[in-house]
């Protein structure tokens, strides 16, 4: 199937002679911004307030080249430079856009993860706002992009590219202040071969044939709402579209989210199904959500992922964490809103089941994967740390648990949902940290400060491990899952005749997944005989649902079933979603009987994998970086 766009027609609402070029000494991790441990920039001195891109995309060389026109604003007297983030960019020239005067700049030494500090000497002017133009070229190895040849696509007609700028990869696409504390609107004019369709995280304002080259087309975009750099996105290829609005589940989700969070400000909401190598379930790019094609295989998460990414239109995109250490403000609130939507559309018991399952997933990640380490803190210390390395379920589920707990002790949804809407209204178009969030919480619930003072905030924010309190979820929908798990656990290997295919016919895909999860957690692992019997009756190897396949394959590998290795490798080779790929590779590596096969498979497939996925799987397999 050709990657396609699902459209929802919802309108809710090196330098020239004589120009100085200077270099600083080696930049250390301590030399990064004091406000964001992942950025070189200093927006407190001079801030990016508008970006205009004028670029040409070259599918043969795998590069973008052209200009980034930046409007910057000085915030302090005496400031004469602006500091940007840059990673593997070839800077050709920097000029004052108003006069054409060439500007001096320095490009610091590269830090492997964080790139280089690009410091530009500002023109002398009486005003605080200045316009500068940077002529540059991206690297073919830019971490923001994945390039596919035509033969690597299902349609095999045109090449394909897509970006993934979160967390700190936009600096390999655009010289910018690559920190979520800086938000800015942007416009773009992108030239590409006429056979290619281009889309961005913005509203299309038209396209036309390039007057200087009839084999190319020029696409224009505008994003009027200020966004952080990680939300700049672009995709190009042989795209097809389907209009699924306005009478679609997507629109219902949007309207439900509006009721919870306030007006939708982004104009359009489109879904783009990306190639299988896309490393995430979804990416909340404004106006153009990216989603994994695994959702088309009947995953339970189709509705959940869409609800999650829609929720980001408010929590994350409209109100944004100030730096990656406060990532829970984005993801914890988004899971909270996602499950609110789920409850309103499908009933409260399903929301409760989802929350309980989230707790189980959090426990597995915190205890088994992260070993109660520093990245299990809700607000981790990320100085000198690649945010991709710290990425886990913790900010999602630990953040959700805190919000759910607060809702419970503050009087329930009737009390807490107005706070949610007021919080978004208060901080929309801004980037904040956890202290600002907490201060607003206390100010909103002035009559319940005594309740809030009893919350162990230091433990919630700064302690490793699981949350200090486990909410009492309604797990009635999980009862048949537990009963079937207990039945399999209790029977001996020679007494399995009472099981049949009918055991799971009345279970939903969510419940089957929970059943498998509970079996995985048994203190005495299921025997290989029982696992084989389960496959004989339930035919899990035939399932297309990726969530079920993940749990089933982990169970098989835990039982050391040699036949499962081929199914596990097939699973990780046919899609690149890290939620599935990394646990399978870790399980393959943990078993000596499959370790060498897993490493050999990874090394052969690495060139086809997304850069982020490949780097993290290499660490899971205890291999060096590329």
From TrEMBL:
Its cofactor is Zn(2+). Binds 1 zinc ion per subunit. The keyword Signal applies. GO terms for biological process: leukotriene biosynthetic process; peptide catabolic process; proteolysis. It holds the Pfam family Peptidase_M1_N. GO terms for cellular component: cytosol. It is an enzyme of class 3 (hydrolase). Pathway: Lipid metabolism; leukotriene B4 biosynthesis. Keywords: Cytoplasm, Hydrolase, Leukotriene biosynthesis, Metal-binding, Metalloprotease, Protease, Signal, Zinc. A peptide binds at residues 164-166, 279-284, 577-579. It is found in: Cytoplasm. Zn(2+) binds at residues 308, 312, 331. Residues 1-18 form the signal peptide. Its EC number is 3.3.2.6. It comes from the Eukaryota. The keyword Metal-binding applies. It catalyses: leukotriene A4 + H2O = leukotriene B4. Residues 476-621 form the Peptidase M1 leukotriene A4 hydrolase/aminopeptidase C-terminal domain. GO terms for molecular function: epoxide hydrolase activity; leukotriene-A4 hydrolase activity; metalloaminopeptidase activity; zinc ion binding. Its main location: cytoplasm. The active site is at 309 (proton acceptor), 396 (proton donor). Belongs to the peptidase M1 family. This is Leukotriene A(4) hydrolase.
